[in-house]
Write a structure and sequence with these properties.
9-stranded mixed beta sheet, alpha+beta, single chain, 9 helices, 3 domains
Length: 306
Amino acid sequence: MIVSGVVFLDKPLGWTSRRAVNEVIRIFSVQGKKRIKAGHAGTLDPLATGMLPILLGDATRFSELGLNAEKRYTVTFDLSYQTDTLDCEGEVISRFEHSIDREALMDVLPLFQGELQQVPPIYSAIRVDGKRAHAMARKGEAVELKARDICIYKLDLLNFDFPYVSLDVSCSKGTYIRSLARDIGEKLGMGGCVTALRRTSTGGWPESMLVSEERLREEKERAVLPLRQWLRDFPTCALNQDDAWRFLNGQRIQLEKKEVGNVAVVSDELLLGTAELKPGMRRMVLHPLRILPSSQHIFTAKKEKE
């Protein structure tokens, strides 16, 4: 059986994203056979739980659909102190004795909606001159990170029980929730140390898609979202057997179609890959973008039997 698709793992507290991928690889790998290929679509800190899309087999070619997607989180942070890592696992660097009321908090929150510039945490996986920022910080090296453009689409207050603030955040790719908590705290003249963080959605996929490690071990085949569904925003372009074989060999194909743009290419419901439809001299031309090795294998086996 060729495994290809996406598992929306409910990442446990304390796991790194790399460990999560390794655990999924172990679950799906068969003893004596080559280990499956897998990767995640958006890092989660060890402190964070929730949605970590893990792509298996051919699906690893489409990780950017998760990396570039809108994310949603629930976060709780403490205004009374701050740490070097901006979360409760770091060393305390400052404490704040005064307090604020709900009205002061509500006055500040609208300032953190819409398009913003945000400086990432120094304890992050961003590369600086080829080195990971967190590795440099742990060695005591100076780390300077540039502000980046982000967008906070939605910022709702879930609960306020000083010094704890809980928010529901929908944001663009590249947003660091630890930095958001820090910046809100600084605007209030306080800390902003994250004590709990959960990703509830990636790219609009609902929290109901989440699969625990325990359930994954018990029902691994049922827990995999087919790759075609991961490509749900791609219109379908169906090919006959001859054109499918040409597509799998990287050839461009002329078609009687009107639409333009990226499409998911199928033949008899088998996903072959993705392509771009562009205008040609007389007809639309299908330009292969990504071809699935598993489909090449299936078609090659069919040809050999003919």
